[in-house]
Amino acid sequence: MTWFDALLITLWAVLTALGARRGLAGLAWGLGGIALCFLANSLSGSPVAAAVIALLLSAGLAVVIARLIPVPLEQPWHMVSGAVGGFLLGGLLIAALALGFPLDVRVTPKGPLGTYPSTNLSPAIYDAVRNSAVKNGLRGVWSAGPALKTLLIPDQAGGL
């Protein structure tokens, strides 16, 4: 486990706690956030355009959640459902962060070969990401289907 893993796990815990604090709104926030990320990544090939789409859609989602769920912590189980939403959104965020560093692509006689993370990163970051348990656990995403790639690594959804 590296300092990078500790940072990712801490971020995941914070988002889970934030979801729990928001109750039912946290569940809607988490599930809606995942859906909006997928939609924004699907609609745009540009990171800037995807970010603008995501910001606009998330503002609309926030308004809808506030109107549909006026009392998010009415029952004790609402806190658990909110924690689930925060946990899911946090998992998406840490997976995207763990897989979001630059990729080195070399052309070999067998075709293009990708190396993750890029060796051009600073040594401290390169070692932390290369040895990351979270990143190693997500290794299967690189060969996953297009839906998962669109959600986590949209720039690689079409291949190398």
The chain-level mean pLDDT equals: 91
Number of strands: 2
Percent of residues in helices comes to: 55-70%
Biggest sheet descriptor: 2 strands, antiparallel
Keywords: Membrane, Transmembrane, Transmembrane helix
Provide a short characterization of the protein structure.
The chain crosses the membrane at residues 46-68, 80-103. The protein is mainly alpha-helical and 160 residues long.
Describe the structure.
- With 160 residues, the protein is mainly α.
- The chain has one domain.
- 66% of the residues lie in helices and 6% in strands.
- It contains seven helices and two strands; from the N terminus they run H-H-H-H-E-E-H-H-H.
- Strands 1-2 form a two-stranded antiparallel ribbon.
- Strand 1 and strand 2 form a beta hairpin.
- Helix 1 (3-22) runs antiparallel to helix 4 (76-98), helix 2 (24-43) packs antiparallel against helix 3 and helix 2 packs parallel to helix 4.
- It is globular, with a radius of gyration of 18 Å.
Q: What is the fold's blueprint, element by element?
A:
Layout: H1 3-22, H2 24-43, H3 47-68, H4 76-98, E1 104-108, E2 111-115, H5 123-130, H6 133-137, H7 146-152
Antiparallel strand pairs: 1-2
Descriptors:
160 residues; mainly alpha; two-stranded antiparallel ribbon; 7 helices; 66% helix; globular; transmembrane helix; transmembrane; membrane
